[in-house]
Design brief:
Blueprint lengths: L1 E7 L10 H7 L4 E6 L5 H14 L5 E6 L10 H25 L4 E5 L9 H11 L4 E6 L4 H9 L11 E4 H7 L7 E4 L14 E7 L7 E6 H19 L4 E7 L1
Helix pairs in contact: 3-4
Amino acid sequence: MRKLFVIGIGAGDPDQVTMQAVAALRQVDVFFVIGKGERKRELADVRAAILAAHVQRPYAVVTIADPPRERIVPDAAEYREVVADWHERRAALLEEAFARAEGVGAILVWGDPALYDSTLRMVHRVAERGVVRFDYEVIPGITSAQALAARHRIVLHDIGEPVHITTGRRLREEGVAAGQPTVVMLDGECSFTQVPGDDLHIWWGAYLGMPDEILIEGPLRQVEQRIVRCRNEVRERKGWIFEIYLLRRR
């Protein structure tokens, strides 16, 4: 039975790679990378830098073209169907690549595989079909939520209180509950501008841990347009953006 590692590599800073992750990297013969296109080349460059820094043995890199999916979906039920279909097509491509490769494999996951990432769902699908027999091990990584808190030097929640982690889509539907700080990921529409209230504070970060890292913090109504202008500018220039933010009522 073959072995596959699913390795969390942190939010963007190569120094966030853990010793456990390094030990796993050094066992790998072939790394499977889901390509995001030339405009997101920086993501591949960070992975390449991590491998160059930590892996001395020979290895191969197999790039899998990420299948396209519909980004604008009118309702939640249809959105889940679109994403499930996308995961299935991704799984089929991984299965095909994994069947052709030899030795120990690995997939490097931005952040942590357990938080808003589809890699483990894709691996589960491949394992359940049984075309390729393999065992897999998950190596945790530093999440963007942890990196955001560290860079802003804050605690995500109040003493003994919960913190809510959600998406931009759900934030627009549900808002921010009183007494429940909310971490928002996967927000391509600046959903914080659609949340009512003058008592919200935001801690926003983009490209965390990377050379182009941007941090903005302040009362939401005072800084929201600054964030919108900043993210639009850098997204236009770079062609992509990774961002996350915390909202908390004062």
